[in-house]
Amino acid sequence: MELLNTSNITMKFGGLTAVKELNLEINKGEIVALIGPNGAGKTTAFNMITGVYAPTSGRIFLGESDITGAKPHLITKKGLARTFQNIRLFKELSVLDNVFIANHLHLKSNIFEAVLHLPRYKKEKKSILEKSLFLLEKLDLLSFKEDKAKNLPYGMQRRLEIARALATNPQILLLDEPAAGMNPRETDNLTSFIKDIRDEFELTIFLIEHHMSVVMGISDRIYVLDHGVTIAVGNPYEIQNDQRVIEAYLGVSEDA
Amino acid sequence: MKKRDIILTIISISVLILFLMFANSRFDSYQIRILNLCAIYTILGLSMNLINGFTGLFSLGHAGFMAIGAYVTALLTMPAAVKNQNFFLQPIVPWLENVTVPFLPALLIGGIMAAILAFIIGAPVLRLRGDYLAIATLGFSEIIRIVFTNTQNITNGALGLKSIPNTTNLWWSFGLAALTIIFMLSLINSSYGKALKAIREDEIAAESMGIGLFRHKMLAFVIGAFFAGVGGGLLGNLLGAINPVMFRFILTFNVLLIIVLGGMGSITGTVISAFVVTSGLEYLRVLDESINLGFVRLPGIPGLRMVVFSSLLMIVVIFFRNGLMGTNEFSWDGLFALLRKRPSFLKREVGR
Predict the structure, then answer these.
(1) Which residues, listed in sequence order, are joined to residue A232 by a DSSP beta bridge?
(2) Among A167, A190, A217, which residue terminates a domain?
(3) Strands A16-22 and A2-13: what pairing?
(4) Quick one: A69 and A185 in the same domain?
(5) What pTM was estimated for this model as a whole?
(6) Domain at B3-291+298-351, CATH class
(7) Domain named ABC transporter: which ranges (chain A) (predicted)?
(8) Which one, of A50, A108, A106, A35, lies nearest residue A82 by Cα?
(9) Residue A139 shares a structural domain with residue A39
């Protein structure tokens, strides 16, 4: 079943076409990667899907609903969560609060119920707290729950970002370079970790990544962008042997 | 809460009430007035801290909201005879002349009017960020003041209002300050309060975690304006006379001073700082007068105390950017930890 679908989305910044006619089809339960050299337009594509930019043209569908140009918080509410290339945690807040806040979008109590601690809010707060602690435990962050997010080691900050994204109850999770800045051992762990959370939370995962070991190890399918244009789509084996992809990454020999 | 903490809290509240009773009967009116001002500035500081400290919006429109609260409360509590005495240039509009309501509803209406105006102002300005928001809110606050100066038959224009009933007393000011503290604590620790703090920490991340930026900023702005209006109402009925000049930028600056010194994002810091700054501003009036040191006579320079406070603000901003409390809050555990740590040299002395 198709979960995320973009049809011919294009993003122009003045005269520069950052992404040109990108067509993504991501099915439920898949792990799909978006790769390409630096400046290929990967993050721009992410920003269009998550609502940071409204595409210049084209449409984006999440399940049945058209989310083209919708505000980021409404897209998140519809079940699409993301992490950031350069970690964006709520640095001065505790690890637990970081996850707690990501539950706020599903809160039904209004502000008066919350301030006056009325029964509905109390009940909701209790279940949010339980869920947050459960997520922290799943991601091995429970012992740090009172620490400020900025004091966590780098790898754990990445994990906390994922925990926070999971707390919004997403159907699809967008990971922007989850392995950036990780050492080889952490990268190996990440591969199995992403598969684990996909199975555990019944997710669909769409990620941007530069570490080819991660991409080839977990992706069901791969999209390759170069200068905003989709140059290849296929499974890891097909991509590894695609002449245009090799050229995009390694350059073309002068006398070829 | 632990049992010990509950007992300690009850004891401190009782001590505070006893102190207020003592102050009410023994202090002279000047001292009582300073105490009232301290409590009112606590309300004003907390309301501004919600907007600036907890939500991270750089708003400078506080004086405008206070002006609305002060005028609405004053006009609603003044008897018709007093109103007619005040409005000798142009008579007051008839629909306001005979309206007189008790103090509490008048305060609430003042707060609600300020909140409504914040809602109207917020719709355009809360789309701005940082310095732009500061300039826009500052502009709106000035606009309110100018409007009040020119609506002769509603606000009595530049003449201001005099003989406002002096309803504000220690019970009103401290009671409402306490309610404000409880409200803010409860709000800040709720899911909504955490969402506001998330916006302060990182707008982009907060938005992609599903927090509607505009709605939540508006929430903080409107609630902040409501309490600013209530504080303004208390202030007007404490001083007994208000005029548009009172609500210039300097008033916003005083409240800003309180929250920066106390710590942006700390309720405890704001409360302590409100008391220190307000009483400081009064008791340092000595500096404005000439000082006789016996051998030399220093001439009085009006406004010297503001120089002292401005320097203090500069020192805080340069060396102690987080203010007195940073984003920390008071807790009995914290206090005991501090007491155990601090007088360690005293303990050693005793042991020797």
Answers:
(1) A224
(2) A167
(3) antiparallel
(4) yes
(5) 0.90
(6) mainly alpha
(7) 4-252
(8) A50
(9) no
Same domain, A135 and A99: yes
Contact with chain B for residue A71, Cβ under 8 A: yes
Specify the CATH number for the domain of residue A29. 3.40.50.300
For residue B112, what pLDDT band results from cuts at 50, 70 and 90? Answer: very high
Query: How open is the CA angle B65-B321-B193, to the nearest 5 degrees?
Result: 50
Instruction: Tell me which chain A residue has its CA closest to the CA of residue B200.
Output: A90
Domain boundary among A167, A190, A206: A167
Supply the range of the domain harboring residue A245.
Answer: 1-79+170-256
Q: Which of B190, B197, B210 sits opposite A105 (nearest CB)?
A: B210
Residue in chain A closest to B201 (alpha carbons) equals A90
A73 to B197: CB separation less than 8 angstroms, yes or no:
no
Q: Which two tokens stand for residue B107?
A: 């305060």
Examine residue A254 and state whether it is found in any structural domain, yes or no: yes
pLDDT at A255: 59
Q: What are the tokens at A80?
A: 């699409």
What pLDDT digit, counting tens, does each position of A79-127 carry?
A: 999 999 899 999 999 999 999 999 999 999 999 999 999 999 999 999 9
Structure tokens at A114: 């919350």
Mean of the pLDDT values across residues B52-56?
94
The ipTM of this complex is 0.91
Count of the separate structural domains present in chain A: 2
Taking the C-alpha atoms of residue A8 and residue B277, their distance in angstroms, rounded to an integer, is 61
Specify whether A131 is located in the same domain as A64.
no
Helix B213-239 and helix B103-125, axial crossing angle in degrees, nearest 10: 140
- How many residues comprise chain B? 352
In this structure, the answer to whether residues A199 and A234 fall within a common structural domain is yes
Per CB-CB distance under 8 Å, the chain B contacts of A109 are 191
User: Per-domain residue ranges for chain B?
Assistant: 3-291+298-351
Query: Rounded to an integer, what distance in angstroms lies between the CA atom of residue A224 and that of residue A242?
Result: 10
Q: What is the mean pLDDT of residues B156-185?
A: 92
Q: Same structural domain for residues A111 and A158?
A: yes
Distance CA A18, CA A42 (A): 9
Residues 6+ apart with CB under 8 A from A256: none
- Residue B50 DSSP symbol: I
Q: What's residue B286's pLDDT? A: 77
